[in-house]
Amino acid sequence: MSGYCLSFSKVHGAQGNVWCTRPYKKEISPQKSQFGSFLFLLSCELVMALSFKFAYPLTQFGFFSTLITNTIFIYLTIFYIKKIPDTYKSMVLVFSSTGIMFSAWEIIARPFAHSYNKGLVYFSLNDWLYEFPEFLQFAIILYASFYLVILAIIAIQFVFRYFTLCRPHLARKFGGVGVSVWISYSLVSGAIYGGSLYLFCPPDSYSDSYMREVLSDSYNLKIAEVTRFLIIPYAENGSVRWNNLSFLLVGVMILSLQYVIIVYCGVRMHTILQKELSQQSLVNRKLQKQFFRALVVQTIVPTLLFVLPIAPFLIGPLVVPFLGIEMNFQTGWMYVILCLYPPLDTIAFMLIVSEYKKVALNVVKPILPKRIKISSEISQSTGPAFTK
Known about the structure:
Elements: E1 4-13, E2 16-25, H1 30-53, H2 55-79, H3 86-109, E3 111-116, E4 119-124, H4 133-166, H5 168-171, H6 177-200, H7 205-219, E5 228-231, H8 242-275, H9 282-323, E6 328-330, H10 333-338, H11 341-352, H12 354-364, H13 370-382
Antiparallel strand pairs: 1-2, 3-4, 3-6, 4-5
Helix pairs in contact: 2-3, 2-11, 3-4, 3-11, 4-6, 4-8, 4-9, 6-8, 8-9, 9-11, 11-12
């Protein structure tokens, strides 16, 4: 089989929008390659079309799911949870409240994105605030900042848990006045990302002309009427557009900083949990391990839902011109997927930290049918006998 590369583009005709491919270099087995390409491109088209059509209903579903799960979590944490230290309790409360604001703001901002060859356009699909473009511009900037704020709070929790295990005197500084310090760090991280997007990626004549046809064909939108930011790191003659490149560099740096903190503290915590916790009580050892697992899940879920899927499309504008390929994808579906993160994270946390399961069961026990009450009481009474 000789080399073959797919170049993605849309053809518009009487049959509607159809993804097609153009051969690059040499062709291979026409029947097999065309059939495989057809299946792959058909699946891409279905995913993209469905995500665009149902993006807003899914976003609304994500918001209401977040509102319900996080409100329950906040209620249980404030009034019933006793084993979690006050400082860490304030962290999880801030994190859960941020999740509600993040989901609510997505309904207002309605962010979406499209990758086209060496460019990416980040824009708003909000059609009921189009008369206020300045507000929508602020809305999608704030939405972009929210993700860094959330990731920064996770990084702070890792630092706090690490200090709790090995340097308790430093962990105590996260309470009191320290709360305003770590909240400020989270906000500054988000502001750096959102501010760089605002400063380095405003639309200009070249970026608008490059993306005009794509927005018109794929979304039936006039680019001049859309609130947008555009990332096109290379000009038509191949020269570097330093403003757009600066945003990519700043974004990678601030994102990498959070992951460096998370990975370093995570590795150190795992080492400590394996060696030093044997000297502590069984209850405290189990609680620390539960907190560690919850933090790992909090990191892995957004990484899998957003960072890894979006990375190829953020890097794409930098490398596509050198690879001899073309891209034309509706990448905004990743924001739709990300709206599911807050409720999934909250549910995972309550399942991992056993006190939440016990408290939740005690709260709902009065309204449970009698048969379920008996079985739950039996499981609670027999549970400790199997604890190792």
